[in-house]
């Protein structure tokens, strides 16, 4: 019975995969993003730095373009490229010169992330911008975040430019079909570092 149950599970998985309509463009061989990867702070992130028992040292800061932050008693401390926990330990070390056994917690309030962890949307979107990547993000999620297509967009000629193992891949996507006709086979999985290019329509 165990063997029979295993066959049933395998068949169910295969059917579910076919029913999902995974587009060929989405099968790129690119590694899946880590399910529980620690967030890496990047320029533009908004942070709350809590120094327990010292409200005068607790503050909200934005990571500068150079990747540094400044807090009370601590100037020009590198934040970009670190996890919130690592940054908290570094703030504690810097404060130890002024405060006995400081305890620090860093929370990320607004996420931007490192450059390679963003999804960039250029061209004829309503609001072209860089978006922080979220695990499981799809093309539809990206289009919702940028407000859809502009009036002059050639959505069915859009491309996702992706680097896999150091090589550039171009994935053609039909955004008009996805948004207007519900063609979910165009709703590909996005990956960190993807660039979505939406050209202008020429009449």
> How would you spell out the order of helices and strands?
HEEEEHEEEHEEHE
**Average residue-wise pLDDT:** 81
Structural class assignment: alpha+beta
Beginning-to-end CA distance, first to last residue: 63 Å
Q: Please, how many helices?
A: 4
State the CATH architecture of the largest domain. Roll
Biggest sheet record: 5 strands, mixed
Uncertain runs are 1-37
Q: Provide the domain count.
A: 2
β content, as a range?
A: 25-35%
How much helicity do the residues have?
A: 10-25%
CATH class of the largest domain: Alpha Beta
What keywords describe this structure?
203 residues; alpha+beta; wza like fold; Outer membrane lipoprotein wza fold like; 2 domains; five-stranded mixed β-sheet; three-stranded antiparallel β-sheet; 10 strands; 22% helix; elongated; disordered N terminus
Give your account of this protein's structure.
Helix content is 22%, strand content 26%. It is built from 4 helices and 10 strands; from the N terminus they run H-E-E-E-E-H-E-E-E-H-E-E-H-E. It has 2 domains: 46-110, wza like domain (wza like fold, 2-Layer Sandwich), CATH 3.30.1950.10; 115-198, Outer membrane lipoprotein wza domain like (Outer membrane lipoprotein wza fold like, Roll). Strands 7-6-10-8-9 form a 5-stranded mixed beta sheet, with no helix packed on it. Strands 2-1-5 form a 3-stranded antiparallel beta sheet, with helices on one face. It is an alpha+beta fold. The chain has helices at 2-19, 84-95, 139-145, 175-181; strands spanning 46-51, 59-62, 68-71, 74-78, 104-110, 118-123, 130-132, 158-164, 167-173, 195-198. It starts with a helix and ends in a 5-residue tail after the last strand.
């Amino acid at each position: 019975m165990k063997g029979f149950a295993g066959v049933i599970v395998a068949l169910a998985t295969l059917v579910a995969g076919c029913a999902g309509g995974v587009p060929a463009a989405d099968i790129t061989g690119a590694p899946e993003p880590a399910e529980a990867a620690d967030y890496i702070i990047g320029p533009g992130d908004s942070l709350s730095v809590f120094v327990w028992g010292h409200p005068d040292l607790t503050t909200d800061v934005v990571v500068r373009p150079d990747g540094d932050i400044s807090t009370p008693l601590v100037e020009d401390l590198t934040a970009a490229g670190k996890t919130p926990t690592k940054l908290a330990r570094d703030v504690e070390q810097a404060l130890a010169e002024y405060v006995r056994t400081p305890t620090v917690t860093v929370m990320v309030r607004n996420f931007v992330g490192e450059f390679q962890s963003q999804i960039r949307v250029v061209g004829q979107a309503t609001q072209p911008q860089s978006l922080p990547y979220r695990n499981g993000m799809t093309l539809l999620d990206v289009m919702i975040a940028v407000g859809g297509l502009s009036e002059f967009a050639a959505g069915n000629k859009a491309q996702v430019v992706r680097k896999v193992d150091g090589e550039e891949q171009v994935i053609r996507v039909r955004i008009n079909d996805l948004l207007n006709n519900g063609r979910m086979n165009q709703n590909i999985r996005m990956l960190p570092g993807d660039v979505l290019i939406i050209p202008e329509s020429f009449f």
